[in-house]
């Protein structure tokens, strides 16, 4: 199963390569934010992440609801968090 998982942008790392550091369930990973270039992404923003790419910008309330729903899914949520941890975008 492929899920999107919410994460909070904590730092913009490289605007040319569209890289940002995002906190996902307490784990900080680099992700690509190029798909959101027109929306603008800044520290404090919440994004929906799938396989190392920010797919959509969401508000904090949506992020909390999504995290709660994902956590209720059990193993699917654990698998998605593991995929974020394993991603190696540098």
Provide a brief overview of the structure.
The chain has 90 residues and is of the alpha+beta class. It is 28% helix and 37% strand.
What features would you describe in this structure?
Helices cover 28% and strands 37% of the residues. It is of the alpha+beta class and 90 residues long. Strands 3-2-1-4-5 form a five-stranded antiparallel beta sheet. Strand 2 and strand 3 form a beta hairpin. The mean pLDDT is 87.
Q: How would you describe this structure in keywords?
A:
2 helices; alpha+beta; globular; 90 residues; SH3 type barrels; five-stranded antiparallel β-sheet; 5 strands
Secondary structure blueprint with pairings:
Layout: E1 5-14, E2 19-24, E3 27-32, E4 46-50, E5 53-58, H1 60-72, H2 75-86
Antiparallel strand pairs: 1-2, 1-4, 2-3, 4-5
Number of helices: 2
- The residue fraction in helices comes out at 25-40%
Largest sheet, if any? 5 strands, antiparallel
Task: Please give the order of strands in the largest beta sheet.
Answer: 3-2-1-4-5
Which CATH C-level class is it? Mainly Beta
Radius of gyration: 12 Å
In CATH terms, what is the architecture? Answer: Roll
Helix vs. strand class: alpha+beta
